[in-house]
Each structure stands twice: as C-alpha cells, then as structure tokens.
Amino acid sequence: MGESLYHHLDWLHGIELFEAAFSTQTFSKHAHEGFAIGAIAEGVGGYLCRGETMALPTGSLSLMNPEEPHTGYAATPWLRYNMLYASEAAICSVLQLRSLRGFSTVAPKDRGRAISKGLSALASALHAQKSRDWHLRVEEAVYDVLSQSFVRYGNAHLPPTGREPRAISTLKERIFAGVAVGEDLSLSSLAEGVGLSASYLIRATRRQTGLTPHGLVLWARIEQAHRLLLREIPAAEAAYMAGFYDQSHMIRQYRRHYGVTPGAVIRHS
After folding, report:
1. Domain check: are 232 and 110 in the same one?
2. Under DSSP, is residue 21 helix (H, G, I), strand (E, B) or coil?
3. Residue 162 — pLDDT band, cuts 50, 70, 90?
4. Nearest residue to 184 via CA among 137, 144, 246
5. Is 36 in the same domain as 82?
6. End position of a domain, from candidates 119, 153, 187
7. Global pTM?
8. pLDDT above 60 (res 1)
9. What are the CA-CA distances from residue 134 to residues 117, 130, 208, 267 (Å)?
C-alpha cells in the first residue's frame, strides 16, 4: 500500500511535502507554524478544528492557516493524502506577493481536482531526482499548488501578465541552447536571463506559448532526441544525450509529441 514520506526542500525556502499513507496513525491536537495545504487522495480523513468534527472524503481539501489548532486521524481503514507545508514568507516569495489573507474555509471541495492533481504532480516530481531540470520541475509544481490554492481559496490576486514577446523569444533561445550542450536548467537562471521574476515568467510563458518554462525545456529535449535518432544514434544514447531520465522516459515523451515511438520513424534518403 505504500509508506508515508516527508520531503524537505532545503533550497526552496524550506517548503515541505508530506506523502501520508496510513491506517492507524492519529495526531493529537497541534498546529503548524506556516500554512498547510492538503488533498485527500484515498479514503476519508477526519479532524477536530474550529470546534467542529469534520470528515474529509476523497477529493476534499484541507486548508490550514498558521497556528490553527486541530487533530487528525484516518476515518477509514486506509487513508492517503498529500500535504504541503510552507511559511508565509516562503509563499510570498514564490508568488511574489507582499502578504496573504489566509484561508476562510477549512475543508472545501477541490473544484476540478486542480489542487489534488497539483500535489500529485509535485510528489511525482520529487521522486524523479535523477532527471535533469529536476529543480525546475519541482519549483513549477510548487508554484502551481500555491497559486491555485491562494487564488481560489485565499483571495490572492496575482499581478496580471502582459505580452512579453522579446522575453519569451529570448527564453526559447536560452532553453534550446542549454539543452544542446546538456545544461541542467533552473527556473531562477531562466528568469534572471530574461529579466523577469520566476512567478511572472511562468504565467507569461504559459499565456504566450501554452506551456510553462519546464514544458518548453521538455519540448526542446524531445526535438534534440529526434535529431539524434535521425542520425541513427541508439535510442538509449539519444535519451541520455537529450537529457532524459532514461530511454523509457524519452519514448513516452516522444510518443506524446510525435504520436509514434522512435522505432516507428522511417528515415528515407
């Protein structure tokens, strides 16, 4: 059934992710120094908070403000959830906000399961440490969870993005050049290279291209792998040279992009 894991992101303001999986674990009344953002992935969780006993079925969110006392337990034989912990300073830094209003609702329904998916994506990213651009992928996943949570449930207003054609063009050039030489790209270096904040860069890139910076990096790696395969470089070697975790990772991404596996590409001369 899996085991509980606790991730501490030392380089990213000490933000943490708890992958909880248990049946008998209980938590006595306690509080967290920072915000806690969680989503029930399987089973039903329960706790006492704000004088009310609550049951949180699969698909529910748990949104705790700092220093909010609560208990916690599994209300079903098996419970699995993901919970992100972050200080107000960390969140303001990631989202480029001056302050936070906090959450008014403790256990809202996760509309469209957006935050559940975001937390799952973060957990998946944290288990892919051997892949290049790992920090970039994790940073974007954290940004996604925080921005969705505070815009939807914390009355946060992120600065609007304008069109940034020059910055996005420079970003693409920087990414393709970095991929070509095997560079491990980070969000901070990409943002610094175009003179934008990391938060703004993610939103502006998505608005103009439909992809995040990590999405552009992945696209560049797929194109690099395609060129190598056309030169009859073996698939395993092409995957490594293009910066993929392994051959199977490259094949999955290649198929999503081209609609076929590398083995189905016929080179005519």
Report:
1. no
2. strand
3. confident
4. 137
5. yes
6. 153
7. 0.91
8. no
9. 18, 7, 24, 33
H/E segment holding residue 156: none
For residue 81, give both structure tokens.
């959830």
Write down the pLDDT at residue 160: 87
One domain for residues 24 and 137: yes
CA distance 149 to 146: 5
Show which of 127, 153, 179 is a domain's final residue.
Answer: 153
Mean pLDDT of 60-75: 93
63/83 same-domain check: yes
Q: Which domain covers residue 170, as residue numbers?
A: 159-269
- 80-87 mean pLDDT: 97
- Does residue 120 sit in helix, strand or coil? helix
* Domain shared by 34 and 61, yes or no: yes
On whether both 261 and 130 belong to a single domain, the answer is no
Give the Cα separation of 94 and 103 in Å (integer).
18
Q: Residue 50 has what pLDDT?
A: 87
Phi, psi of 82 (to 5 degrees): -115, 135
Q: Are 171 and 193 in contact (CB under 8 A)?
A: yes
State the total domains in the chain.
2
- Write down the pLDDT at residue 132: 82
The per-residue pLDDT of the chain, averaged, comes to 93
